Amino acid sequence: MNVYVTGIGVVSALGIGVEANLRALQTGTTGIESCETRKGSALKGRLKKSDVELKNILGLELESQVPRTALLAMLASREAWGDSVVDSMLKTGLINGTTTGGMDLSERYFASLYLEDDASQIQQLMTHDLGTVTHLVNSQFGIKEYVNTISTACSSAANAIMLGARMIQAGILDRVLVGGTDALTDFTVDGFGSLMIYDKEHCRPFDEGRVGLNLGEGAGFLLLENEKSIKVSGHKKLGLCQGWANTNDAYHQTGTSPAGDGAALAMLEALELADLRPQDIDYLNAHGTATRNNDDSELSAIDRVFEGVELDFSSTKAHTGHTLAAAGGIEAVYSILSLMHGCVFPTLNWKNKMVASERTPVVAYRKKEIQTVMSNSFGFGGNSTSLIFSKV
Q: Which one is predicted more confidently, 300 or 193?
């Protein structure tokens, strides 16, 4: 059974909505800029809207206890859902990936508790768990058949997409809203800081002189449908979700194997499921975080899988920052945009070829006939996920 993409929605440092993000990608614009943190300023990919502004856009009461992670997801999922309605004829699901949940509100509560001895805002802890974010997203739609939350670090959204596609293919669901979301919080900013993998300048994916990543925030969602659902909805087919795979290289809690074993296996299994050859991939949206470990490992895996194949690949994380659980959703949207508009998006800030490989990323926006796109998302704990989208 074919699984079609019929809706896309995205929020990132590049802006709110598909059109704003597409324009920024086409013009080589970055959303990463200096932001204040608890420990000074740092380069981050933060959406330039306050929580109050986001609530106004969504029509929420300003006093409502809705974490920023949910606000971002509500915007992106609403765009992907479009004019869909809950229909008893269709088995509908929602699968959301996140790692931060309501962490931002929890941080505010503990700050008021320990700094001001004020426990009056304890209700803020009620939004801490990850599932609450998913239920807040679903408050817009009222989906009842299947609602789930996935948290597999930076592959969360990609795994949500994979699970949704599998459930449609198995005949369990007719359509499913899938994706992921994460907001910047002190917890994640300090946590990644402890690993000492930040670049004080703009990150440089796949550059020999790269130092580390820039964090970001955002949300990306797809609406997946089968033929039965499309006959009811009348939605246009934007692309085909043709292949997917999730593997684990079991190498290290916060690092990937130098040879990229998990990543290579994910790409190979996704190709096998899609019944495609490496040379059939027209564009690879790489995970490309710009850390020393990730880019070495991922490029090694790419060299193994695409041996003897000329491949256009790039990382869009120099545009958005690394959006953690949301990355796979945001970059799946970008993959669909590549199919729709016939283009390859650039890797910003790249200058020097990596010594370990002869491959170099695409560094300028390029028009190209695109039939098939692969998107990689790799997370802590060895989680490696590859998705393949094809033109209909």
A: 300
